[in-house]
Design brief:
InterPro entries: F420_MSMEG2906, Luciferase-like_dom, Luciferase-like_sf, SsuD_RutA_monooxygenase
CATH topology: TIM Barrel
Number of helices: 9
Pfam family, one: Bac_luciferase
CATH class: Alpha Beta
Helix content: 40-55%
Order of helices and strands: EHEHEEHEHHEHEHEHEH
Distance between the termini: 15 Å
Protein name: LLM class F420-dependent oxidoreductase
CATH superfamily: Luciferase-like domain
Organism: Occultella glacieicola
Shape: globular
Keywords: Flavoprotein, FMN, Monooxygenase, Oxidoreductase
Oligomer: single chain
Strand order of the largest sheet: 1-2-3-5-6-7-8-9
Largest sheet: 8 strands, parallel, barrel
Amino acid sequence: MSAPVRIAAQLQPQHAPDYGLIRDAVLRAEDAGVDIVFNWDHFYPLNGDTDGHHFECWTMLGAWAEQTERVEIGALVTGGGYRNPDLLADMARTVDHISGGRLILGIGGGWNEKDYENYGYEFGTPGTRLDLLKEYLPRIRSRFEQLNPAPVREIPILIGGGGERKTLRLVAEHADIWHSFSDLETLQRKGGILADHCADVGRDPALISRSTSWPGADEAEQYVAEGVRLFTIGVSGPDYDLTTVRDALAWRDAR
């Protein structure tokens, strides 16, 4: 039997002058029936006023771990170069325990130059950022094995991105979930490339769940036919309007 289709809300921590607006949105999303609540790992808003209100990712996930009861939580996605990987593994393990085993570790190479420059990280190039992620992923897994107490469960790793040579190779080697930021045609093509990488490393591509942004109810079944089992709807502050999230949930429940 194929895995169930799941719906996530990405509550983007931007343009909310009061954290209570985000806390309320988490409560509403869980009550609405979403399977996962994501945030993102940036230091500034990505649209609108890019110097506007914004909150940090991982301290927020700790609060969500206490606040929620059922949903999985995580970042879509953590900037791979923003934290020492052993520390990140420990942070993830701790949030996993606080939540009772509901954390997804979403991670990617990073891309927003303003985050890097203003917080003192070396921006480099897409290639150097992915090389750093390649170095860090085994360290994260190794640290998981050393931590005492161990994570509640084997923490799923979600890798976001679609670079054909480097990112998809890392997906083949390390990911439990691959989040593609692409349209259907590109997803189909890159799925074939991922399968080739999986063959090279001796891994069954069916073990990697596919994830993407919600395309709307009219197109969603086409993505499901390509193996997508997780759809995410991005929702921004300050209002955190969940109308589209509820539409996606109604589609999920009807199918």
